[in-house]
Each structure stands twice: as structure tokens, then as C-alpha cells.
Write a structure and sequence with these properties.
Layout (H helix, E strand, L loop, with lengths): L4 H4 L3 E5 L8 H11 L5 E5 L5 E2 L2 E4 L8 E6 L3 H14 E6 L10 H14 L2 E3 L5 E4 L4 E4 L7 E8 L2 H13 L4 E6 L8 H10 L5 E6 L5 H9 L6 E6 L13 H5 L2 H12 L2 E3 L2 H13 L7 E6 L2 H14 L2 E2 L3 H8 L13 E2 L6 H13 L5 E7 L6 H15 L5 E6 L2 H12 L4 E2 L2 H14 L15 H13 L7 H10 L7 E4 L2 H11 L3 E6 L12 E5 L2 H18 L7 E6 L5 E10 L3 E8 L4 H4 L2 E5 L4 H10 L3 H5 L9 H17 L3 E11 L4 E3 L2 E5 L4
Parallel strand pairs: 1-2, 1-5, 2-4, 5-6, 6-7, 10-11, 10-12, 12-13, 13-14, 15-16, 15-17, 15-18, 18-19, 19-20
Antiparallel strand pairs: 3-4, 8-9, 8-11, 21-24, 22-23, 22-24, 25-26, 25-28, 26-27, 28-29, 28-30
Bound molecules: acetyl coenzyme *A.
Amino acid sequence: MHPLEPLFNPQSVAIIGASHHEGKIGNIVVHNIIASGYKGEIYLINPKRGKILGLPVYKSIDDIPSVDVAIVVVPAKIAVEMADKVASKAKYIIVITSGFSEIGNMDMEQKLVESARKHGSRILGPNVFGIFSSKAPINATFGPAEIKKGNIGVISQSGALGIAMIGKAAEDNLGLSAIVSIGNKADLSEVEILSYLFQDELTKVIFMYIEGLENGHEFMEIVKKKPEEKKIIALKAGRSRAGARAVASHTGSLAGSDEIFDAAFRQAGILRADSLEDAFNWVATIAASPPPKGENVVIITNGGGLGVVAADACEKYGLKLYDDMEMLQKIFEDVMPEFGSYKNPVDLTGQAGAREYELALRRAFENDAIHAILALYCERGDAELESLMNTLIRVHKEYEGKKPALYALFGGEGTTKIVTEMKKNRIPAFYEVEDAVSSLHALYKAYEKRDEEKIEDIEMDDDAIRKIIDAAINEGRSRLLSHEAKEILLHAGLDVPPFRLARNIDEAIEYANEIGYPVAMKVVSEDIIHKTDVGGVVLNVENDEEAIDAYELIMKNCHMHARRARIEGIEITKMLPPGTETIVGATTDASFGKVLMFGLGGIYVEVLKDVSFRIAPISKKEAEKMVREIDSYPILAGIRGEKRKDINAIIDSIYRIGILVNKFGEISELDINPLIVYEKGAKVVDARIIIKVKK
Ligand code: ACO
């Protein structure tokens, strides 16, 4: 039995602060519990005693036996005073009361948690609207009394929005398996609620409204355990960037909290909606549709224009329109007027009415070459709408579960009525073509096969890496010098071309000869971040003479433009032939931990922002997805006669960085910029590593 079973399926509940006054929260909760047909014991507590909604009222919590759930609806101060007593009587405490950490009253919230811990009970909230669970059934919320049962589980961080969602779900006739308000998350968070819903046989689709995640790491761990058949759609509020986070790397500055959420959701197979409208459309579609058995989508329409709009949207979302003309002709032969078109979108033309739609839908449902149906209708202003509505509903119901079928009806009052009626029948119907296509896309995404996560440890010279990090920590240096960063990467198994640190001209010449001309020479200083800006870099040094000139020039420039900088020396590296510059990086997020980044590199990376993120560590498959995800991927895959770059070498580099930063938690930021990629191999040219030094 899941530990949260008593919360979702309580045998007994107590309402602390049950109110005699209609309209007050403590009264509505009691009313809703009774109205939901709850079969367990109900204990109402209020010092005034008497009766509330026909139930006896106990003077004190001392007067009742232990319960599975206590619902607290007394003001915050009283809630804190009673916390110990309540915790001694209840396994789960739902604190509806507001006035805790959300307004800065941390101590009061802490007191609730401490009391619960002392007695081994758990808290949902405070500052929540309650819980509805269709299993019990119980509606212990102060939202609408009537909540339809179904297969959608909702977790909402916002109370007001959660209540509004109940209303919207009712309007769209969406059935809920559970709705849980998590509020301030003083104790229970979305992580535990998800773990319950994952094993709850009544829940198929989970809709989460998230404002922030404090425990991103645990969240990732739990979503990895999501059963394949359960689907999650999330609406994350606030697309704003990370704000004033102090970062010293490209990766850090590009990895805003929103990008990280995006990455986490993508990695976890969670569909992220941009708006409440999208979220509801997707949830409704996934809840009501079977999985598509293949990629062939057919559009049936009575208007060419609407068909084109849908076809364009399908292209935008990457949906495949079935294009076997011969088969399409065979399938729709007996429905199509002479002047109709078999070419998908299948255009039944403006004269098509209920009869034609019935036939066309039957053909599409019955033929196995078609895997999903998108039926569109443009209002013609005729009297046939009623029979069209009945037909669409009847035919859909007849074939329900066979394959996904979505509908978009465009027009005035008549089509609005049809859509409303179809929604009432839990059929995915929309007013806008784009909404239907986006929902079909979400359905396909939801059933996309997820790769098995395989993260194997790889051999690295851990001792050598540890030595470099410890030396810097001992010296109180957080910014590793270029050669130290490169040494770490070398020990981690990346391809780092030969490099040496020259501390004088003689060494510069010696190392340049050892490495072999042409070489690149770069200043090494903890105080100089942008070496080129101060004239600290000379490329293509061909011989000893040029090496001497370069050495002197770099020193002169640095003394002039970065007078106070402590210069360690000049790094001599092999001058590499041109290739494609990419960036591989890592940063640390307060919630999710280590985050990896990949993109096309060079100096424009922060302008173009063509980068992808993942939470580390990742599998090689995931690293490959990161590479394919950037817009400039075709440049790597080879365009206009250029050869394909060594994508496996990039994947290997990202994979190794993922393992490196996870193993050595002190590495807070890391940039390889550029990692130059060739037809064969990928080489580290410049590297930057920041470590966390405890003060
Ligand atoms: N034990 C039990 N009952 C008690 C006790 C006690 N020790 N002391 C008082 N009560 C009774 C009161 O007599 C009263 O009953 P009555 O109406 O029969 O007289 C009842 O408990 C409630 O107490 P009130 O002082 O009347 O408190 P009120 O109902 O005004 O407010 C509430 C309590 C609703 C918990 C309020 O403090 C609160 O937090 N409101 C906000 C709730 C909220 O919005 N939560 C977030 C939800 S999410 C969202 O944003 C929608």
C-alpha cells in the first residue's frame, strides 16, 4: 500500500474549525465532504458544539479517536497552538489556513512541521484549498461541491488557480481522479503526490501547475520512475530568466531557470504547455484518446482553405499526413464527389453534410493504414447542423478507442454548440484548427517512446583531477587557470591538443618547438577573463622569431590593458585547423543541481542563444538529443556539400562532462568554448572551470 493511501482514501476525517456559518470555509468543506458521498467517519470539531449540517460537533479534538486525515480551517494562530494535539490524532493534516511562509511567517510554519514530525504525521499545505480524491470518494476542498470523476489527476501549487481548474474541468466535462493543492509545500510536495498518482489505477493523465521547484533533483528521480502509460502535462508559471545570479561562464549566463525547467521537463518526458488553454486541450485529448498506432494522419474537411490551414499546422508540428494517393482514393472512393480531392487533406467539398461525414469517418476509422483522424468542418449556414452534431458524436462513440480522432469546427453559434456538445461527450473537439493540431501533436509526443537511461561510468583519472581541484581550494582560488582546466579535461578523457605554460621567453620557444609550429599563444591569468579584449592572444605563430615577438606583445598589452592582473605565464598550444566551433558547458542550478549545455560556439553564443540544456548526468542517447535539438544542427550534419561533422565525438564530450561535474561536485561552472569539431574528432581549444570554494 502506498504511504499516501490514507490521504487519498481516508477511512476517517476530522475538520478542525468546522463552522456553523454557511459560506465560511469551515462550513463549505463539511458540505463538500458530505455532498461527495464520503463513506468514512466524519468528526467535526468546534468549541461551540451543536450540530453542523446535521452532524454532531465535538468540543475538542481530545474527544475524538485517531483519524486518517485532519483538515485544519481555524485561523493560523490557533492552528499553531493546536498543532501538537492535531498531529497526535491524525496521520495526515491538511492545513487549509493561510498566513504562514507565504507572508513571511516562517516560524509558525516550522512549528506545524515540527509538531507533525514529532508524532510521525505528514502535512499537506499550509495555504491549500484541500484535496479531492475520486477513490474514496471525498471532496475535502472549499471549491465547487460537484467534481466529475475521471482519469485526470491535478496537482496545483496555486490555490486560486486550482479552484478555477475545477470549474474549467466541469465546463469541459473533464473527469478528475484527484486534485491536490500543495500550497506552501511545508512538508508534502509534488514529488510524493506524483509517486502516489503513478501507482493510482484511476489516474491516466497528470496535470501539474508549478510555480517553482525547490527539490528539482528529487523531482527528476521520481519522474524517471513514471510508468510508461501515465502522461504528465505541466504548466510552469513564469518564463522569466534567472535574474541577478552571479555567473562567470557562458553556460551560467545562458542557463536561466526557465531554460532549465524546459530541459528537465523534456528529459523527463513531461509535456510543457505555454498556456492554460493549451494545457486543458492537451489533457482532454490525452485523457480521451487511445495511443496512436502509427504516424499516418488524415485530414477530412469540407473546406479547402481550412484543410490547408490544418496541413500547414501539421507541418509546423511535425505531424505526418498520409500521402498514399492510391490508398486514399480507395478508402474514400464512395464518399467523394466528382470535384472533391483525395489528396490529404481529403476535401469532401462544401456540399458535404452529416451523411458524407459519417461515411468518411467510418472509412477512416476502419482502415488500418490511417492512424489518426483530424476532422474539420466549416459552417455552411444550413439547417443540417443538428444532424451533423448527432452524427459526429454517434460515429465517434461507436469507434472510440480504435484510433485518435480530433475535431475542429469553425463558424458561428451552430458550430459552437456542436463543439460544446462534443466536449460534454468527452470527445476532443475544438473551435480552432491550430488547437486541434497542437493537441494531436501533444498526443503523439505523450506516446513517444522514451529511451532507456543508461549512464555507465567511464574511466577518468580521478586522483589527478582531485589533486588539481584540491590545490586550488587550498589556495582559495575559485577560478582555475586555463592549463589547470585543460588538464582536468584531459584526465576526464577529452581530446585536448598539447599545451604548455611558459613562464618566460626561453620556455615559450622551447615549448613551441616541442609542440611544433604553428602555435597559438595566450595569456594565463586568473584576473583576465576576456583574453582577446586585452590583446592577450596571438594566433598562427610560425617560428621562434614570431614566438619572441608574440610573447613580448602579449606581455606589453596585458600590462597596458590589465595593469593589476597577476600573470602566470603564456600558454602555448598547437594551432588547430579551422573546424566548426561548438560550446559544451555545465553550470549549477540551486534546485536541479548540475546542468549541461551544448550549442554552436564562438563569440556569438550569447547573442544567438542556439543552445540546448539537460540535467546531469545524462545518457549518450540524451546527449545526442541535445546535439540534434539546436537550430544549427544541419551545420553539423553537413550542408551544401560540406561533410558531416563527428557528432559522436561531441556526444562523447558532453557525456564525459556530465559524469565529470557529477563526480566532482565542486565544479560549479565549466565552459569549453570552443570545442572545435572536425569530420573526425572534436578538440578542446579553450576551457574555463569555476570551482566552489568554501569561505
Ligand atoms: N478548535 C476548533 N474550532 C475552533 C477553534 C478551536 N480551537 N477556535 C475557533 N474555532 C472555530 C470558530 O468558532 C469558527 O466556527 P464558527 O464559524 O462556527 O464560529 C471556526 O473555527 C473558524 O474560525 P474563524 O475564527 O471564524 O475563522 P474564519 O473561518 O474566519 O477563518 C480560515 C479561518 C478560513 C482558516 C482563515 O484563517 C484562512 O486562512 N483563510 C484563507 C484560506 C485560504 O485561502 N487558503 C488557501 C487556499 S488556496 C487559495 O488561494 C484559494
